Amino acid sequence: MSEKKHTHGLATRAARAGINADPGHEGVVAPVSVAATYVRAEAGSPGAFDYARTSTPTRALLAKAVAELEGAAGACLTASGMAAIDLLLNDLPLGARILAAHDCYGGTQRLFNARAAHGRFDLVYADATDTRTLEDALKPGAALLFLETPSNPRLRITDLERAAAVGRTAGALVAVDNTVLSPALQRPLTLGADVVVSSLTKLINGHSDMVGGALCAASPEAHERYHWWMNAAGTGLGAFDAFLAMRGLRTLPLRAKAQSATALALAKRLAAHPEVTRVNYPGLPDHPGHEIAVRQQSGFGPLLSLEIRSDTRAFVKRLELFTLAQSLGGAESLVCIPALMTHAAMTPEARAGAGISDTLVRLSVGLEDEGDLWRDLDAALKAV
Ligand code: PLP
After folding, report:
1. Atom of ligand 1 nearest to the CA of 202
2. Which of 95, 162, 202, 210 is deepest in the core (most CB within 10 A)?
3. Is 80 exceeded by the pLDDT of residue 335?
4. Residue 216 class from Cβ within 10 Å (0-12 exposed, 13-18 middle, 19+ buried)?
5. Each residue of 282-295: pLDDT tens digit?
6. Interatomic CA distance for residues 121 and 47, integer angstroms
7. Which atom of ligand 1 is least distant from the CA of 148?
């Protein structure tokens, strides 16, 4: 009788990532392998590692862990989240049609727009949360459908199963930017996506002390091609950064859960505050994507955005526990004004179309005590 193999839970897999993987010295955790090149026994036969641009033991351990968490055949780890997105583009033919979600991250739009302006792609944006709009935009076909859910900073939710099915029917490769939630809270490959891109800089590392990205492919063949490009272009993640991200990843499920719980509590309190006119958080029952989020996510994540009655710039300066800085998903809470910061590269028209007003405030909720964060928000709101 064949015995069914037990699959460990998420927290176990994360906590055990890269443990007992130091054949040299049997350290419980593996060391940072800094070698740029590796000894060959024979000129014609490389060993498991050959040259650090191609792979290093430290990067390989983290890649295995990230691929495992996403349910991918493999992960290519890159020097930034943007490098992972660019890696995905490398594999598309000249003139390929890209359909991207109109409210995806501003840096992604900057890259897509610049490549399209140079004639590399035919680029269209559409509201991917609306299946009919998506179907219409995909009628001429597309090589790539690029989705981001929840979207940064508007926290719009795309029904991944539906969007992936529509994309696949149109013959597109379906890619999802999973940065805002990480594989601890959402696994797009299990919902029909072909590839997942993530900024390791955010929740996965979680300590705001490195920059990196991951491109995870469902198919081994696609993973091989991406790996070829990463090596050819030399955009792989450095060993120290891989080591740091591995350290962060071991506590990812715990952090993602705690940050989501605090973000939900703050979102509820903010929604009831007289100085607040709007809160965007998929965990709120009146959020238009709430039911889809409940179905396809296992938590609502650390990010929320809001509109307030009074002066936004004065408000963000008054906050003490929310540091005014770009980025998200770290242990420390951050605040930003996307129109002036993370999404400044978009044109005002593109921002308006994506629902990103000049006064939208984005909060990334960290691991501080909920009561302290609330007192900070409430005091800053009262003072303006
Ligand atoms: N995708 C999303 C949703 C992001 O928010 C970011 C950065 O903020 C990126 C991609 C790019 O990641 P990185 O800054 O690591 O290049």
Report:
1. 15
2. 202
3. yes
4. buried
5. 999 999 999 999 99
6. 38
7. 3
